[in-house]
Write a structure and sequence with these properties.
Structural class: mainly alpha
Helix content: over 70%
CATH architecture of the largest domain: Orthogonal Bundle
Strand content: under 5%
CATH topology of the largest domain: Rna Polymerase Sigma Factor, Chain: A
CATH class of the largest domain: Mainly Alpha
Order of helices and strands: HHHHHHHHH
Number of helices: 9
Length: about 200
């Protein structure tokens, strides 16, 4: 003898419109309270990281770039206007721009050690003795090799391209004050390497 089972009706599938409306609510909450942005961050981080990683093919820079994407999104969340398009569309635009900036900076950094004029310019900052130029230039080049790409970029912008601290900050996406602090830290690190 068979038992009678009552089947619960399946829940109604969530429509695209309902998903978008739910996301619109989350965005509105984040615009009122930046702490609520965390939900959007957690929901979309993996997808944006995967997009960036596909372009960059390295974990560490991909993580840095993805973090920068969400930082910019958080800082500009109040300018975002919901138009029935997924939030990720906006994140992809920011991510694409950040990847392009990474490659522009990366290309510039590859030229750093080949650029003798830049090394000469930087050498004056350290008061290099011109009588023993070749040996000291070799030491400076070796020291530069030990810096991270981001650190090299700061030095290049400041001492070769003669950017003001404000311009350095604008080019790498930080404040003028942070650009100052970062420059002095990199110079201190370089001096420490040179005195070892």
């Amino acid at each position: 003898m068979y038992k009678n089972y009552t089947l619960n009706p399946l829940p109604e599938p969530i429509t695209i419109h309902q998903k978008l409306q739910s996301e619109a609510n989350l965005i509105a909450e984040a615009q009122q309270d930046p702490a609520k942005f965390k939900v959007l961050y957690e929901r979309h981080f993996d997808e944006i990281f995967a997009f960036v990683y596909k372009k960059v093919q390295q974990r560490e820079p991909s993580g840095d770039i993805t973090s920068q994407v969400f930082l910019k999104a958080l800082l500009k969340i109040n300018t975002f206007q919901f138009r029935n398009i997924p939030f990720t569309a906006w994140l992809y635009v920011i991510a694409r721009n950040e990847v392009n900036m990474y490659y522009r900076n990366h290309k510039r950094l590859k030229e750093v050690n080949l650029d003798e004029a830049w090394v000469h310019q930087l050498a004056t900052e350290f008061g290099v003795d011109h009588e023993d130029w070749e040996a000291q230039e070799a030491r400076l080049l070796a020291a530069l090799e030990k810096l991270k790409p981001k650190e090299l970029l700061v030095l290049r912008l400041r001492f070769y391209e003669n950017c003001s601290f404000k311009e350095v900050g604008q080019k790498i996406g930080i404040t003028e004050n942070n650009a100052k602090v970062r420059t002095y830290r990199v110079l201190a690190k370089l001096k420490k390497i040179l005195t070892k």
